[in-house]
């Protein structure tokens, strides 16, 4: 078995160099890298931030929209029995956004770029909210009906915007399915990391990966994933509606408790973040560009604005106007970065762990494992008497972050696969491959004591590929979103027909408007 895994790892040996090249281009060229500040930024980061600023200006700072209004949209009674509610779509999107990257990614950004990276993460998220609005509104515009559900997202709006050629949508769908499914094993590994750490803490000793505990974890995880995924999108959203609020609330409450325990350190936190953003410590390179690059890169990869991944969740919602889901998913970026990532940043920065030592251990020996740095930071900030309990709770949060992301990946692959074929057999095949092939594969690598870095690097490669595919499509189709937004503002969210903005879509038609009105009248009479 181990030789098989090693063969797989060797097969993907070319992935890491390709991924690093694309993410770093053109900073990997000496002439460019020597340009002050700008030389720290890759094309991918400049592209994501640039379009975020562009969309912010063109939408007249859409991210400043009244939060109360967005919350009312999410809490509004679902207008029909078709699709899922705006709130369920928000939760499914947050299941993906609020993943392990919110802990290890942010810890890594601070480890490399210093506390100032958090400031630039906030800046990136602010502009990323506009990008999320654009892609989510397009997903709503071009969503399609499948029985009593909706399907849509990048492959669907990509096809319509790029000449209405089916081969375009098929290509985008295949790329996304590969992206999503190859992200499943790393998330499986993260679940094991979380539960294994809890088991080690409770047992008071390090448990071998071949121990009975790890086999029990493997069986339970595979069974849980198969049960939830095989039930389809509605069953997945039923569970994410519960698990996402639990993980977010638990994480935020525990983080707030830690922050309150260390209240005198809050001025220190803001000093390090603000000063570090513009005058970083020499320990982290001593250049603004280092903090800026780390903050922007990790922030955008955490909230996923511009990757087209959250468009699957945006498309399945039943909204009264396509812009509504744009507002909802934009708020998801805010909550993910400004709240959850900031909570992580508070703990990591205030603990001083990033300054060089952890209980006498050399900094470099722990920095390789970002979850080790984070948990060491937690233990540093709380009383010894409760340190183990809080560590366990934070590991529970980390495990839930990974588990809901895992569910989201497989579900989004299924939604995307609907572009290729909507036959029950094909869709069931995607569910089986995701939950009964890729999840067990991830579990087996853990049991074999392997981490397969070359295979895991594939997810990093696919992240940048998704950005390079999605952003140009957003730029080409942006005029439709501006027209839809103008309609929303002029009518205050009144009845929407796509022909009014110069495009005919499958769902937002005049016929649909009449049918919806009749359905609403019938529901009022029956009630």
From TrEMBL:
Keyword Transmembrane helix: yes
TM annotation in the entry: 37-57, 82-99, 119-142, 163-182, 212-230, 242-261, 273-293, 333-354, 389-413, 425-449, 461-482
GO CC annotations on file: plasma membrane
Keywords, sorted A to Z: Cell inner membrane, Cell membrane, Membrane, Symport, Transmembrane, Transmembrane helix, Transport
Domain of life: Bacteria
Chief location of this protein within or outside the cell: membrane
Pfam families xref list: Na_Ala_symp (PF01235)
Membrane topology classification: Multi-pass membrane protein
Subcellular compartments: Cell inner membrane; Cell membrane
InterPro entries on file: Na/Ala_symport
Molecular function GO labels: amino acid:sodium symporter activity
Protein family (similarity comment): Belongs to the alanine or glycine:cation symporter (AGCS) (TC 2.A.25) family.
Name assigned to this protein: Sodium:amino acid symporter
Organism name: Caballeronia calidae
